[in-house]
Amino acid sequence: MNFLLDTNAIIYLVNGRLGSGVPGGRYGVSVITEIELLSFPDLQLDEEQHIRAFLAVCDRVAISEPIRDQAIVLRRQHRLKIPDAIIAATAMVANAVLFSNDGRLASSPNLRLRAVPLEPS
Hints:
Blueprint: E1 3-5, H1 7-14, E2 27-30, H2 31-38, H3 45-56, E3 59-61, H4 65-78, H5 82-94, E4 97-99, E5 113-114
Parallel strand pairs: 1-2, 1-4, 2-3, 4-5
């Protein structure tokens, strides 16, 4: 896996808001991202089906012991929310670039973070 997609990146992608294409490579998602995407209270059936179809072509990454341990370090050192710490740790352990527009993640020095370019509103 070359890239990990944060929740916000997938929302932009499925809503057609990307300003440019994403590079070729293998893409993955943390199980936390999957939970966040599919647990929106107002999620409509067609939206859920679209998200599930997208997730089906991505590698899903479960929370392993190394991811757990790295998330603990990130949460302690950078005061990240637990889901953000797990997603960032997943990218770090997988040695993947994280696509995200969450500025709080930029404080993690060993995280390879790339902002998602958006279409102008």
